[in-house]
Specification:
9 strands, four-stranded antiparallel sheet, alpha+beta, five-stranded antiparallel sheet
């Protein structure tokens, strides 16, 4: 096992940071926030930006008391080897939390980096280990402390359940959209362009191979992935309205609002799969988001995000937005004041499947 662990570091080079974190108050603050995640994802709802973080401080105190009890039991208890093993496991989890805190407290900012939800999985054994430790070390306070831990776990169960349900709904939204478009027989190129922000957010280009591998493996609705086929441009009747009409053409979101919306309504001559949007966005402006509304058999859902940063600044740009049949308009959102000029809007329609 040690040899395998050593092989993992063969060729490893310590990454260099422009502003590396340093041990100090920021790291300690972040460590307490990390320890609080042992109570589950619902710990995010507990105010953690104060100093010291109350939930993390309580968890640290509980771990310290447990470590002290295990250390005493390891020296003169009835089962020193078991107590020493539990102490080693406890130290390992705290060390993992400390390493994560050091890594996340980048740039030495007071808040550090966000406590990622993945750390909940890493630190979830911490409280069960404390519970098992008190079963082992016993003592006069053991029964009372075990009861407090049990009641605390029960109290945290429901908030964690609702928190997990909220997270699952957030993930289910894009997955439901992908499933709907697969059943609508959208080909891989359109799916990859439309959901690159979700399928491969770190990749500069959409990944067609991953979609086709899922189809080849007959995974769920990906078996319905349609083959590529010719794409035709169709005429659209469209109109746009924005926060403020610009004298030279286009729309300028109201600077007082800090954000702006440009609504584009269109009437296709027939069913369309997407639209080709040609536009000019002032170079000093911010990237735009595009949303659309499309009816489904279950009724009209909330607005759907098409692309993250779909509209990049520049002159004479073009972007394909895959909206699917039934869509009658777009809402373009900008995070800051900018000027948008819509040059052309064209429908895109795939040839029918044979």
């Amino acid at each position: 096992m040690l040899a395998l662990a050593g092989l993992a570091f063969v060729g490893y080079a310590v990454p260099r940071h422009a502003d590396p974190p340093s041990l100090g108050l920021h790291t300690l603050e972040h460590l307490l926030r990390m320890l609080a995640t042992a109570w589950g994802g619902a710990a995010e709802r507990v105010r953690q930006d104060g100093w010291p973080a109350a939930l993390g401080l309580a968890t640290a105190a509980l771990v310290a008391v447990t470590a002290g009890a295990l250390a005493r039991a390891a020296r003169r208890g009835p089962a020193p080897a078991a107590s020493l093993g539990l102490l080693a496991l406890l130290a390992g989890l705290v060390a993992a939390a400390a390493a994560g805190a050091y890594g996340r407290a980048f740039a030495n900012q007071p808040g550090g980096g966000p406590v990622m939800r993945s750390f909940v999985t890493l630190l979830s054994p911490l409280l069960p280990l404390v519970y098992l430790a008190w079963l082992r070390v016993g003592g006069r306070v053991a029964a009372r402390l075990r009861g407090v831990l049990f009641l605390g776990a029960v109290a945290a169960a429901w908030p964690n359940f609702t928190h997990g349900e909220e997270q699952a709904r957030g993930w289910f939204g894009p997955q439901g959209m992908i499933r709907y478009d697969l059943y609508a027989r959208l080909p891989a190129t359109a799916l990859a362009e439309k959901y690159a922000w979700y399928i491969s957010p770190l990749s500069p280009a959409p990944d067609l191979g991953e979609l086709r591998r899922l189809q080849a493996a007959n995974i769920g609705p990906f078996r319905y992935l349609a083959p590529e086929r010719p794409l035709r441009e169709t005429a659209l009747t469209w109109s746009a309205s924005g926060a403020v009409a610009h004298p030279a053409g286009g729309f300028t979101p109201d600077e007082r609002l800090g954000s702006g919306l440009v609504r584009v309504a269109f009437t296709p001559a027939g069913p369309i799969d997407g639209v080709l949007l040609r536009y000019t966005l002032s170079p000093g402006g911010t990237d735009g988001h595009a949303r659309y509304d499309r009816p489904t058999p279950e009724g009209r859902p909330p607005d759907r995000l098409i692309h993250l940063n779909a509209l990049a600044p520049g002159e004479g740009r073009a972007v394909r937005l895959w909206v699917g049949p039934g869509c009658e308009g777009l809402t373009l959102t900008f995070a800051g004041p900018t000027r948008l000029q819509l040059l052309e809007l064209t429908g895109l329609t795939y040839d029918p499947l044979p």
